[in-house]
Amino acid sequence: MRILIRNGTVIDTHPAVAVLGELDVLVDGERIVAVGKDLNAGGDWEAGGDVEVIDATGRLVLPGFVDSHRHTWQAAYRAIVADGDIQDYFRTVLGELAPSVTPDDVYAGNLAGARECLDAGITTLLDWTQVAHTPDHADALVAGLRESGIRAVLGYNPQDPGEEVRRVRDTHFRTPGRLSMAIAALGPEIAGEERALWEWRLARDLDLRVTVHAGSQGAEGARRALEFLQGNGLLERPTTYIHGVDYTGDDLKLIADTGGSVSVSPVDEPALGIGYPITGRAAASGAPVSLSADTVTCGPGDMFSLMRAAFAMERGLGNLAFTTRDVLRMATLGGAQTVGLGDSVGSLTPGKQADLVLLRTGTPGMAGTRDPIGAIVLNADTSAVETVLVAGRVVKRAGALVAV
């Protein structure tokens, strides 16, 4: 199936975030094949052939958003610690709820949470899970993501000597597709050095990326953990460092120089008392930087809220060189690079997967738009998300999720 998106205001993120003008985007199967003026889809599409034409007049066309760290199963417990701090979150969500969830619970949570993402224009998600208690739980987590239609990386937190991790990889992720896998490590700051060695070596043995909550247990612990990873030759394993609020400029430079990336949660970090987001400092290091919802137990689940928070908080530090273009890149290509999919999604480069979002500009909150990028970051919300494609398949049409 080919899809021709016609006459939209196209915004791309590579090589720089820019408004390209009123153009067409041609999708063939799962991939973008062309972006340009007056594209011809070929065949007899005007006579109702095998091409679907989507009229994007008055719409903004851009790459789908990428959330680089979300505990998706927690969609079932929205706002349960709305006024709490990180200790309340640990006690209620991880201490009381997580141990009791069934496979059916985590399936429903992942399915609902992933569809929430799609509804908001988030086409790619890293699902950082702490509830793969049994093989049935792990299979249910994957099933929820697969059924939703989203592109996802399952961040699997290993609970055993490694046999179950291998089973999950071999059962669900042997064939390339919308779903892939990473090791969700506890890391040396939380679980100690011995376990961290095992986690990174397991990731190396299975050829998987690592995603880890790091740099948020104090500056001394953050520095010592990085030195430990460096001393054991582990920094070369592609790793995403989540939060990192206690990292110094030198720490962030080391992460950038060793191919690491940073995931910032601009709402939950201050809301839970974790610390002030390092959005601008991380970007200055040269590492790929991305945005994440973290958990809807205490924050929003849409990228528009995250972009606005990141923009306002960084500008509030006096960094007026930080722009809406910087934020939009973090929400798209930066997120794709962070989760290891920069060659596949995050921009409208022909050959990449057709993960696209069309935003309405005729809503009361978007009418009168002069700067499309500024409007996306500062004015848009989920109600503006009209059409969403993942791998060339329409998953939201005319403002409603398809086949839900």
Textual characterization of the structure:
This protein folds into 2 domains: 2-63 and 346-401, Urease, subunit C, domain 1 (Roll), CATH 2.30.40; 65-338, TIM Barrel (Alpha-Beta Barrel), CATH 3.20.20. It has 14 helices and 17 strands. The chain has helices at 86-97, 103-119, 135-148, 163-172, 187-191, 193-206, 219-231, 249-257, 268-271, 279-285, 303-316, 324-331, 333-338, 372-378; strands at residues 2-12, 18-28, 31-36, 51-55, 59-63, 65-70, 122-129, 151-156, 179-185, 209-214, 239-243, 261-264, 289-291, 356-360, 385-390, 393-397, 400-401. The strands form 2 sheets. Strands 1, 2, 3, 4, 5, 14, 15, 16 and 17 form a 9-stranded mixed sheet that branches. The protein has an 8-stranded parallel sheet with strand order 6-7-8-9-10-11-12-13. It is globular, with a radius of gyration of 20 Å. The two termini are 21 Å apart. The relative contact order is 0.16.
